[in-house]
Amino acid sequence: MVKIATWNVNSIKARLPNVLAWLTAAEPDVVLLQELKCQKEGFPRLEIEALGYHYAMVGQKSYNGVAVLSKQPLEDPLARLPGAEADEQARYLEVTTFGIRVASIYLPNGNPPDSEKYPYKLAWMERLRARAQALLASERPFALGGDYNVIPAAEDCYDPAAWADDALFLPDSRRQFHALLNLGLTEAFRALHPGLRAYSYWDYQGAAWQADHGIRIDHVLLSPQAADRLVACAIDKSPRGEPKASDHTPVICELAA
DNA sequence: ATGGTTGCCTCGCAA
Predict the structure, then answer these.
(1) pLDDT digits (tens, 9 = 90+) for A132-149
(2) Strand ranges in chain A using DSSP code E only, listed in sequence order
(3) Are A30 and A93 in contact (CB under 8 A)?
(4) Could you identify the residue whose CA is nearest to the C1' atom of nucleotide B7?
(5) A122 and A172 in contact (C-beta within 8 Å)?
(6) What average pLDDT is seen over chain A?
(7) Which nucleotide in the DNA or RNA is closest to residue A205, CA to C1'?
(8) Most buried of A55, A62, A63, A153 (most Cβ within 10 A)?
């Protein structure tokens, strides 16, 4: 069994005690982290390695930044999403571990939709689709996990009307997300829990956590060869209720060995 | 009701 988790930690430095406590309790084999908000030298590698994890990361000052932690070594890192060589935003890291190709994804937020940020988001999603297509041709198991900044459907949102004009829920965002799935990928949580209302993000503002005003935007997409091994997928709400929590909580899936 | 929360490390921006 391989336990793969994804978690947007909203600053690895601010979140370090929470992250270390959760790794110790949940014991995931592979962890995809997003929004590190630091460069390589600021990454708390000693503390992570002390828990038995190898790691790879791509950093950026103050914004973005993604990492992969694994109980086994990481091979063949790809530190950027192909298709825009001038793009300096640290939002993509792909490695091989446990014999599985995994990517940690921090998809652009895209707000406000009338700014240049929205076309950047859609173009980034098109690049991701092209990358997924190339990976599918390998016919090997892979998992693309992270903060997709997309609410796939109305049932993934406490109040769809409140999000109607948001870049996370606009039709073009959802269309592009479903185009990705339609390549033949399996969205692990929804595949195992059709119709279940569950969220992975609650805004810091307006007591959203206490009111359960959440959205489900953190996803793990599996290739057919990985989906055949999928035995469980869950959202672990407990870290969101801790002091100094990230606004996101981990999503975990288990693949048979 | 144009509010409110968090993190970065600037005096605003991004989420």
Answers:
(1) 999 999 999 999 999 999
(2) 2-8, 30-34, 54-58, 66-70, 75-78, 92-97, 100-106, 142-147, 186-187, 201-202, 214-215, 218-222, 230-235, 251-255
(3) no
(4) A11
(5) yes
(6) 97
(7) B5
(8) A55
Instruction: Domain of residue A133: give its range.
Output: 2-255
Provide, in whole angstroms, the distance separating residue A134's CA from nucleotide B5's C1': 40
Nearest Cα neighbor of A35 from A99, A114, A90 is: A90
d(C-alpha A66, C-alpha A173), whole Å: 22
Name residue A78's beta-bridge partners: A94
First to last CA, chain A: 5
User: Does the model's pTM come out above 0.90?
Assistant: yes
CATH number of the CATH domain containing A119: 3.60.10.10
Q: A13 forms bridges with which residues in the sheet?
A: none
Assess whether A91 (CB) lies less than 7 A from strand B.
Answer: no
Residue A244, CB, strand B, below 7 Å: yes
Give every CB contact of residue A57 below 8 A, 6+ residues apart in sequence: A33, A36, A40, A43, A65, A66, A67, A68, A93
Gap from A88 CA to B1 C1', in Å?
A: 39
The residues facing A222 across adjacent strands are A143, A186
| Number of domains into which chain A is organized | 1
Closest CA to A220 of A16, A80, A28, A73: A28
The SS3 call for residue A48 is helix
Is the four-CA dihedral A125, A126, A129, A134 of positive or negative sign? negative
Give the residue from A49, A8, A65, A30 showing the smallest Cα distance to A248: A8
List, for residues A29-40, the tens digit of each pLDDT value: 999 999 999 999
